[in-house]
Predict the structure.
Amino acid sequence: MKRTVLSIALILLLCSLTAFAQNELKFAELGDFKLESGEYIRECKLAYRTFGKLNADKSNAVLFPTWFSGTSEQLAGNFGKEKMVDDAKFFVIAVDALGNGVTSSPSNSKLQPMEKFPRFSIRDMVNAEHQLVTRTFGIKKLHAVMGISMGGMQTFEWMVAYPEMMVKAIPIVGTTQQTAYDLLLWSTELKAIEQAQALDTSENAGAELVARIHALALVTPAYRNSSTPPKEFSAFVQKEEQNYLNTFNAENWKSQLKAMMAHDVSRKFGSMAQAALAVKAKTLVVVARQDMMVNPDPAIEFARLIKAEILEVNNACGHAFASCEGSKVNAAVARFLGQ
């Protein structure tokens, strides 16, 4: 009996250690990584985590890049049974995008620190991820590329940059090109940081103001009014500001802001219609109709050009759609991945 109990305990321990090893943060060494601009990120490192098991013919891999300022650790909640991606079926590669503070970024570069870090693009993020997929994992074709927000922007870029590299694509509340309203938001955050840096030399200069601007656009007025009574407003704002003060790095934020502001999948094709002709992946485009952070119209228009399936979520949560209808989106994505 004692041996049986010990054996079970040992099996459970080994299983837990295996799961940890899969989900732990790892780094791919890309060397001096050449950017679209011709500059290099010296000794570039791309961070990632994996979930699930890669099958024998490497046909079940799903690449999931991070959202704006997000990390692969934060993506973990999307993987598992009845989640967005079932890691019992798929091998998920959650990758930290350039500039997020984990992968090579202004804040962690030893050779090109802070303002010396070269400017990069969404395409550069995708090119680095392509190296990870092909060189580190030896994967010739992904089952899917998918991502949320800036992850959705990277997904759209993957679709036109490496059309043969994926069977399916799922951009979620992403865009193919910034609208004027999007640019108004991003440029306001950028200006707030730059003006704060003129007066403050700390690494989190501008954090409190950016926290307010970001919160203003993340959800709709209706959602904010219903979820935050006036008497709780001060506590809400203080919590938002403190979260940013604890995690915000001005140069990292600026680097990804600039990448998003320049994002346009048609720029190498001459028109969005020409870019659409490059797409080969079966695609599900998920948009939030009341999104005040990433306008849904460019994604919808591109989806129609490529005859993609469209899931339109219409609720007061806006860009934070998952707070209202996360289960609906999870079910739709899981169905699409399994088709």
